[in-house]
From TrEMBL:
Domain Alpha-D-phosphohexomutase alpha/beta/alpha: residue ranges: 70-112, 118-197
Residue ranges annotated for the Alpha-D-phosphohexomutase C-terminal domain, each copy included: 519-554
Pfam families named among the record's database cross-references: AMG1_II (PF21405), AMG1_III (PF21404), PGM_PMM_I (PF02878), PGM_PMM_IV (PF00408)
The protein's name in its UniProt record: Phosphoacetylglucosamine mutase
Origin organism lineage: Eukaryota, Fungi, Dikarya, Ascomycota, Saccharomycotina
Length: 561
């Protein structure tokens, strides 16, 4: 059966028609415009039925196109409890190719009351265009789903099960559908990749696969140490899925080693209203203060180490309090620089003669971190557009060892074969063990946590020494609601606005009059995950930052009035 004939047989099923009719007649989403953005669809859960339907359909197309496992992750990461979202995962664990985002966006926006025939025509056009390069005649659809702990996640997960089971009944084709239940986003990426690499169609024991891959090397790092300067590791789980997985990890960990006790904080994932509230990586980074349930005195003690995960455990932020109880934020910029420094420290200079080690950041990286990378570490640095898929791509394209982190704590390290071969030839066992801790598929809070602890222990430094490597410029990131954020168009890696007309000139003027010490920077861009535009400003003093932010806010109001 040709792919399009096959799709037609699915589309004429009663299930699809009935589902369509009920979705299209929901008044809540009648005038909604859907966009598959920075990290898939993400909005209030009550508006997400159509986006989920479109996500299932694009997963179907992608599965036909690749003829391999495709994943769907149900999560809204750091967003408030009432939100949710979806993104698809490629066979090797990557994100949906950017060229396909327009297809899924178009499918979602063509669901309109009484327009089923038009919807089908549009879908078949999209399918013909999307599938035109593939010659694969998919015989078995292979789908994997996973979800976070949100209240609405179970409902969306049930819909996926129903959708794919009904396709099976409608077409009598073979479908392999695996539901991994409550998992972190990086675990879902990892497991889809595992299925593809091992060509396994039966469900894995995720605990075994994931923890063996990254946790065993960490235990080895710990067993190589004579002593540890840290007595206790406190992990803020944001009352989300990180708690579910780390509770299992902690149980294994405490049986294997007595070095560094682990305490999990904010683990109430059963109380849906608490997710990301006053805790988690986003709260800590945005507010630059301790999350709920962290004791100030303990945070001042250098023998304790503190970190926070976000709601789907793909980001992590470390922190401490200094002797005067000032907050020391150890964010993505700090992790990227620490990892860069560690690579330099553990290798002879000649190792890099024919290899490139570099760091990828976004415009939100603190200006002083960028100066530290170029002036002190003497490493190459590249700026990418917001969204880890952009950083990942640029790290792979530009470097043999590419370290990439968003300032908010989302990132990892990628290595190419050239580096891996050289590492095998060189006698660097400590670095080889370190490399095996890294989840190259995607930024992962749990593996990033192992990576950072391994470095701190190996360099024998505490959080405050790490913090003292350079001084952040005072900065602020604020949101502004505008009538239509799609009016905001950027260029130069989102550092400058092309539209609305005149606004960039106004920002340039505000920056220039506040730039006495040549440290001031500000930019505005539309968020891809929330209905707001974001304003970032940094300068030599807190006061100067505040003036810039307030003036830029006024300029935005004037430009959008
Ligand atoms: C300034 C900022 O932190 N933006 C975040 C946020 O994207 P926005 O497009 O800015 O809404 O969510 C993304 C997904 O989690 C994350 O990749 C990104 O870094
Ligand atoms: Mg996240």
């Amino acid at each position: 059966m040709s792919q399009i004939t096959y799709l037609k047989s699915i589309l004429c099923s009663d299930f699809l028609r009935d589902t369509y009719d009920s979705l299209a007649s929901n008044p809540v989403t009648e005038h909604e415009k859907f966009v598959y953005g920075t990290s898939g669809f993400r909005m209030h859960n009550e508006k997400l039925d159509i986006p989920l339907f479109a996500t299932c359909l694009i997963t179907l197309l992608r599965s036909i196109y690749c003829n391999e496992f495709i994943g769907i992750m149900i999560t809204a990461s750091h967003n408030p409890p009432q939100d949710n979202g979806f993104k698809t995962v490629e066979p090797k664990g990557e994100m949906l190719p950017q060229s396909w985002e327009k297809y899924v966006t178009s499918i979602a926006n063509s669901v309109k009351k009484g327009k089923f025939d038009e919807f089908i025509a549009n879908f078949l056009n999209v399918a013909t265009e999307a599938l035109k390069e593939t010659t694969v005649e998919g015989k078995e659809l292979k789908i994997i789903i996973g979800r976070d702990t949100r209240q609405s996640s179970e409902r969306f997960s049930s819909f996926c099960t129903k959708f794919f089971n009904n396709i099976l009944t409608a077409t009598h084709e073979k479908i392999k559908f695996i539901d991994y239940g409550v998992v972190t986003t990086p675990q879902l990426h990892f497991i889809v990749r595992k299925h593809t690499i091992k060509q396994q169609t039966d469900k894995f024991d995720i605990l075994n696969e994931y923890f063996n891959e990254f946790f065993q090397p960490f235990l080895e790092v710990m067993s190589n140490l004579k002593s540890s300067r840290f007595k206790k590791l406190y992990i803020d789980c944001a009352n989300g899925v990180g708690a579910v997985q780390l509770e299992k990890l902690k149980e294994i960990y405490s049986k294997k080693t007595k070095q560094i006790e682990i305490e999990l904080i904010n683990t109430d994932y059963d109380d849906y209203s608490k997710l990301n509230v006053d805790c988690g990586a986003d709260f800590v980074k945005t507010n630059q203060r301790l999350p709920a349930n962290v004791n100030e005195t303990l945070a001042m003690d250098g023998e304790n180490l503190f970190c926070s995960l976000d709601g789907d455990a793909d980001r992590i932020i470390f922190y401490a309090l200094d002797a005067n109880a000032n907050f020391c934020l150890l964010d993505g910029d700090r992790m990227a620089t620490l990892i860069g420094e560690y690579f330099m420290e553990k290798t002879p200079k000649s190792f890099w003669n024919d290899l490139k080690l570099g760091i990828v950041q976004t415009a939100y990286a603190n200006g002083n971190s960028t100066s530290y990378i170029t002036d002190e570490l003497k490493l190459d640095v590249k700026c990418a557009k917001t969204g880890v898929k952009n950083l990942h791509h640029d790290a792979v394209e530009n470097f043999d060892v590419g370290i990439y982190f968003e300032a908010n704590g989302h990132g990892t390290v990628v290595f190419n074969d050239l580096f891996m071969n050289k590492l095998k030839e060189s006698n660097l066992p400590e670095l080889s063990l370190f490399v095996s801790l890294i989840n190259q598929a995607v930024g992962d809070a749990i593996t990033d946590m192992f990576v950072i602890i391994a470095i701190l222990l190996n360099l024998d430094i505490d959080a405050k020494t790490w913090f003292s490597k350079y001084k952040d410029l005072p900065n602020r990131l604020v949101k502004c609601v505008v009538p239509d954020r799609s009016q905001f168009e950027t260029f130069d890696y989102e550092r400058r606005l092309a539209k609305p007309a005149g606004l960039q000139d106004a920002i340039n003027h505000i920056v220039s009059v506040n730039n006495a010490l040549h440290k001031t920077r500000s930019f505005v861009r539309a968020s891809g995950t929330e209905d707001v535009v974001r304003i970032y400003a940094e300068s030599h003093s807190v006061e100067s930052v505040e003036v810039v932010v307030q003036d830029v806010l006024k300029a935005i109001k004037a430009a959008t009035a």
